Amino acid sequence: MMKSPTQVDISTLSAEVVDIVSQIPPGRVMSYGQIARLAGWPHHARLVGRILRHADETALPCHRVVAASGRLAPHFSNQADLLEAEGVVCSRRGFVDMHLYRWLPGEEVDA
Asked: CATH: 1.20.1250.20, 2.170.16.10, 1.10.10.10, 2.60.120.10. Which one for 10-101?
């Protein structure tokens, strides 16, 4: 059964989101929905986005999280610069190719 937002323990979800995002390797990205599913809270991608929007970006690689379409976050002004510094190509329209850069936990990443 799907959990409703009122049943979501925000502190538990926040801890799970932080754990997942901290594991995304440089040069790879994950989507908000992918993180929500891995955290055990499917259908809560927007809540994941809100959690990350208030996270400490210096301690957590929030720039490695994008929309399922590959679209960069509109509120994150230097996200493209940070991703490109890691080798992720961003289009002029603000997208990354999810087929090339999506990371799945447990997947080997070329050094």
From this structure: 1.10.10.10
Give yes or no: 62 in active site.
yes
Whole-structure pTM value:
0.87
What's the pLDDT tens digit per position in 18-34?
A: 999 999 999 999 999 99
7, 10, 43 from 96: Cα distances, Å: 33, 29, 22
Q: Provide the β-strand partners of residue 29.
A: 102
pLDDT digit string, tens, across residues 81-107:
999 999 999 999 999 999 999 999 888
Catalytic residue among 35, 48, 52, 62: 62
